[in-house]
Amino acid sequence: MAYTIDRDSTSQPSLSEMTQTALNLLDDTSDKGFFLMVEGARIDMAGHDNDPAAHVHDIIEYWRTVQKVHQFVHSNPDTLVVSTSDHETGGLALGIDPEYTWHPRVLNQVTKSAEQVCSYLFRTQKQDVTEVIEDHVFPKYLGIDNHTQAELDVVVDALQVKGGDGRHKACKHAIGGIVSKRARVGWSTGGHTGADVGLYAYGNQMHKIKGNMENSHLGTLLMQYLDVSPSQVTKALANTATRQLAFFHSPHHDHD
Prior knowledge:
Blueprint: H1 15-29, H2 41-49, H3 52-75, E1 80-84, E2 88-89, E3 93-94, H4 104-108, H5 114-122, H6 129-141, H7 149-158, H8 164-183, E4 185-186, E5 192-193, E6 199-203, H9 215-226, H10 230-238
Antiparallel strand pairs: 1-6, 2-5, 3-4
């Protein structure tokens, strides 16, 4: 699934559109209720890439998705929706020193994710890279019309990193780093952090989900709400033959 900032709306539905369709289908075909899990996975990937523009676009799309679910729950008050995350990624901070301010308009000018920008650069002939960065990447994709030599150098240097995975990561962090610095956005890591994450609930029995809790306790509450037993499911799966379907996992998505 493409980043929201890169998505072609004529060929790929958005997360909120897919969620609305899933809710409509399940509501029309299930007379016993249903469980639906929706994941805004690209938020995590943008955090790994330290790409603030892609990050905020997918967060906003997730908000749109939550709004769709909220509307469904409002019309079906016997329904519970829970929104949370399994971890934070990137160690995002706004208003890094020395200014203690940040500039969101910088992100609004970006039109491509770092992932797409780097894929474009890797397809560019080596002798044309500098010209392409200056004439296309900076002004058209990143909204930068006053780039510095240092910003140009950091992208060119990243493209020289040996090894496919390392080069992709270096390029994405270089592109994201330029945008982040101009927006005064900071990152502490390209991995996961131990920061607390938000936990939100709305609808039937939402009063049971509040305050700080261990993530495993949330699972227990949901099992109680759904009246299901993991031991019964485990026993049923143990007697069921399964096979793993072949799939392709891009080596350029360094996420979990």
